[in-house]
Amino acid sequence: MEQIAAQPDLLSDILDRVNSKVRDVKRPLQEQLNYINGQIVEKQKNIAKFISMI
Predict the structure, then answer these.
(1) Which of 6, 29, 34, 53 has the fewest Cβ atoms surrounding its Cβ within 10 A?
(2) Could you tell me where the DSSP H helices lie in 1-54?
(3) HSE of 50 in the Cβ direction (CA atoms, 13 Å)?
(4) Whole-angstrom distance, CA of residue 52 vs CA of residue 36
(5) Are 4 and 10 in contact (CB under 8 A)?
(6) In the prediction, which pLDDT does 46 show?
(7) Is the separation of the CB atoms in 4 and 14 below 8 Å?
């Protein structure tokens, strides 16, 4: 661990790779969350529309 900390370029490279992997894993999950949130908003609008008709 001390060897890595003593070499800032190596530490930076490792952090860049880890952050890249995190982004790659997070991206599809974020897209799915955005889709689900959009569907929720759409359903809430439909519910409000039906309630106003009643």
Answers:
(1) 53
(2) 2-5, 8-53
(3) 6
(4) 24
(5) yes
(6) 97
(7) yes
Query: 């060897």: which residue's tokens?
Result: 3
Contacts of 14 (CB under 8 A, 6+ apart): 4
pLDDT of amino acid 1: 64
pLDDT per position as a tens digit, 19-44: 999 999 999 999 999 999 999 999 99
Distance CA 35, CA 29 (A): 10
Rounded Cα gap, residues 43 and 41, in angstroms: 5
Q: Is the pTM of this model over 0.90?
A: no
Distance CA 14, CA 12 (A): 5
